[in-house]
Amino acid sequence: MPTLHVNVVTPDGKVYEGDVDMVSVKTVEGELGILPRHIPLVAPLTVGAVRLKKDANVDFVAVSGGFVEVRPDQVTILAEAAELPSDIDVERARSAKERAEKRINNAKQDGIDHKRAELSLRRAINRIEVAEK
Ligand code: ATP
Questions:
Q1: Does the Cβ of 128 fall within 6 Å of ligand 1?
Q2: Which residues of the chain have pLDDT under 50?
Q3: Which of 13, 72, 88, 124 is the least crowded, having the fewest Cβ atoms under 10 Å away?
C-alpha cells in the first residue's frame, strides 16, 4: 500500500512528520480527504483538526489556519499555529475561549474586534476538542 509522507510545519518549527494512509484537513471550502496519488493542489486552511490515519490508528493535530500543499506522495501543512493533543494546554484554551466569548458579547456585531474574537474562539474550541480526542 502506498503511503503519504506528511509534514506539519509552523513558523516555530516542525510539529509532526510521518507516513500515513490518509490525511484529512479543513480547507476554507470544506473538509478535504487526501489519499496517496491525489492530484497536486494548494489550498488555504481554516481553523480545524488535521486527521492522520495510519493502519487502525488516528492522530490529530490542531491547526489554526495556513495552507496545505498536496503532491501525489507527500502532504505539507504550513500552519500559522499547530499543536499535538499532548502539547495543548487545555486551561489556557478554556481561558482564551472565555475571553473571546466576553469580547463577542461586548463588541459591535460587524466590527473588526468581533471578527478577531470569533477567530480566537474558534481556535480555542478547536484546541479543546483536539485535546479531548
Ligand atoms: P492565547 O490567547 O491563549 O494566546 P491564541 O489563539 O491567541 O491563544 P495563537 O496566537 O493561535 O494563540 O498561538 C500563539 C502560540 O501559542 C502558538 O505557538 C500556539 O501553538 C501556542 N498556543 C496557543 N494556545 C495554546 C494552547 N492552549 N496550548 C498550547 N499551545 C498554545
A1: no
A2: none
A3: 13
